[in-house]
Amino acid sequence: MKTIKAELIIFDLDGTLIDSSSDIAYAANRTLERMGYVKFDIEHIKENIGWGVKVLLERLMPQEPPERILEARRSFLEFYGSHLVVDTYLYSGVAETITRFAELGKKMAIVTNKPEGLTLRLLDEMKIGGASMRRYFPVVVGGDTLVVRKPSPEPIQAAIKAAGGAQGSSVMVGDSPIDAEAGHAAGIFTIGVTYGFRGQDELTGFDILLDRFSGLKDVIE
Questions:
Q1: 175 classed as catalytic
Q2: What global pTM score does this model have?
Q3: Per CATH, domain 21-81 is 3.40.50.2000
Q4: Which of the residues 12, 14, 23, 179 is marked catalytic?
Q5: Which residues of the chain have pLDDT under 50?
């Protein structure tokens, strides 16, 4: 398998580092109930995670006008904020691989379409080796950090700048076509993981696909 030299590894969050689908589905379904809708099953909700809260709600309630979507977004953030890491967990191999990259001196960052405040809270509450995940990711660019989000390349470019990295030695790891699109638009190598929220047939835009997170140790030098 092809290997790549990288000093900065940029990760998506949901569907890549963590499986947050149960907690997101809880918040989405509580929001739907409040708005007068019936619940959706978790698989349908997972299919629509990744583009940010507003897009998720627009897809779950496609007939609603913008003001109702805004109301629903406030409800979602209320429910999700109180149920952030109840059933969320790290994917297999994440803790060991992140620890290894830290030992090797790799810089690491997160670029996600999840709101920045919720992302930082989640990283504070989740642990790797007894320590907050946040210690491994000094640079976090959320969906509301800038005026644009993925698939725009700007969040990735901002992360590279904040981490003191370089375009030619950075790599993007994600589970969604928007991660591949954003990475390529930013001019960096992209690695897709197939265990996340998307089927493998949706991941054709990545330079490399991996079935296991731990496989990154064999790909990134």
A1: no
A2: 0.94
A3: no
A4: 12
A5: none
